[in-house]
Amino acid sequence: MEKERINLIARETLKYMVENQIPVSPENYEKWFNVFKEAIYYEIPLTDSNLKELFRQKYLRFDPVKSTDNVPKKYVYRVLDDIDTSLLELINKVEEKERKIKEEKKIIRLSEDKEVVLKFVDNLAEEIIDIKDDLQKERVLIEEAKERVATTKVKSLSVIPGLKDGIQFEKDLKALLKTPKSEFCILYLNVDDMKILNEKYGEEAVNAILKKLGDILQIHLPAETPIYYIGNGEYAILLKFVDKKSAEELANKLKNVIQNKIFRYERYSFKITVTIAVVQRKKQDDYNSLLTRIQKCIEKGKKSGKNCVVSV
User: Fold this and answer.
1) Of 61 and 235, which is predicted with more confidence?
2) DSSP readout, 123-161?
3) Strand partners for 278
4) Banded pLDDT at 11 (limits 50, 70, 90)
5) So what's the pLDDT on residue 68?
6) 195 vs 59, more confident
7) In terms of domains, do 124 and 101 share one?
8) Which range is most confident: 55-69, 104-118, 147-161, 268-282?
9) Which of 30-39, 83-92, 162-171, 209-218 has the lowest average pLDDT?
């Protein structure tokens, strides 16, 4: 790696660690240096959420199913390109060895010298061993690349202008839970049939829908209401000092606004619906118990036909 790039990574690493109050120990520095190196190599934007996600993938226990990964598709495609390039190099190497073997076979046919034949057999055995070793090395590299792809959950959009992200949602929610007397409800919106929308209209159209939906939420909620885009068509709204009944009424209002809205993108005109979970804080709640209740509400809503409000 050229000196300029190493200096750039070193500067960005130290700057990030200082700004985020991460202890600059040799172990921490090495880990974050590797995170920045990978992000720059794969041309991943150096956003806080992307860097934390890469750190989580490399050094923390990682569940790709539950991940709120915001790493772009370019990262996965780059990994797949690496696999393809590696295999092509191996194929070319094997073809070159095959060509040499054919040339030596011609010499053998013309020779009656036993030593020449034995030498050819020995060389052929060595060639086969070399090919086998190369294949084994490539297999290890491919398995590593497959693991990197498997732990990268691709999402169509990571940030929506005007909305906070999933990492901030986690921070804000945990902060509220530290105050025993804080009362709040959570509205958690999940866009119905995201897979079908992506397949039918394409990623760019769906991204436009998700951004427009973010605008709708900002228009129909008080200016100071915290709104978060979690990723993969999911939004969270924190309603402080709001009771469950009022939260349900607001959720139904938002659901009706969204289902009656006509979204447009280029030549497309279409409607979408959302399933909304309404969860009120309980005294015994912690961060994980709240998320579990939200997930149960969403699952119940999906099973009951979608485009609905479910509360607990």
Assistant:
1) 235
2) HHHHHHHHHHHHHHHHHHHHHHHHHHHHT----S-S--T
3) 187, 311
4) confident
5) 44
6) 195
7) yes
8) 268-282
9) 83-92
| Whether residue 77 is found in the same domain as residue 46 | no
CATH code (residue 291)? 3.30.70.270
* Crossing angle of the two packed helices 166-177 and 287-303, in degrees rounded to 10: 120
Tally of domains within the chain: 3
CB 40 within 8 A of CB 9: yes
- d(CA 175, CA 168) in angstroms, rounded, equals 10
Counting residues of the chain whose pLDDT is more than 70, the rounded percentage is 69
pLDDT tens-digit map of 177-193? 988 778 899 999 999 99
CA dist 290 and 173 (Å) reads 10
Residue 73 has pLDDT above 80, yes or no: no
Contact status, residue 225 vs residue 237, Cβ threshold 8 Å: yes
Beta strands in 83-179 (DSSP E): 164-165
What tokens were used for 151?
């732990």
Amino acid at 124: L
| Vertex 168 angle, CA 39 and 256, to 5° | 115
Q: Which long-range contacts (CB under 8 A, 24 or more apart) does 109-112 make?
A: none
Regarding whether 131 and 102 lie in a shared domain, the answer is yes
Q: How far apart are CA 49 and CA 8, in angstroms?
A: 20
Q: Say how many C-beta atoms besides its own lie within 10 A of residue 192's C-beta.
A: 20
Q: What is the mean pLDDT of residues 143-155?
A: 55
Backbone angles phi, psi at 11, to 5 degrees: -65, -45
Tell me the β-bridge partners of 231. 234
How many Cα atoms occupy the beta-carbon half-sphere of 165 within 13 Å? 13
Whole-number pLDDT of residue 226: 95
Asked if 309 and 248 count as a contact pair (C-beta separation under 8 A), the reply is: yes
Looking at the structure, tell me whether residues 178 and 281 fall in a common domain. yes
Last residue of a domain, one of 94, 126, 150: 150
| CA-based nearest residue to 210, from 276, 150, 263, 280 | 263
Q: By residue range, what is the domain housing residue 84?
A: 73-150
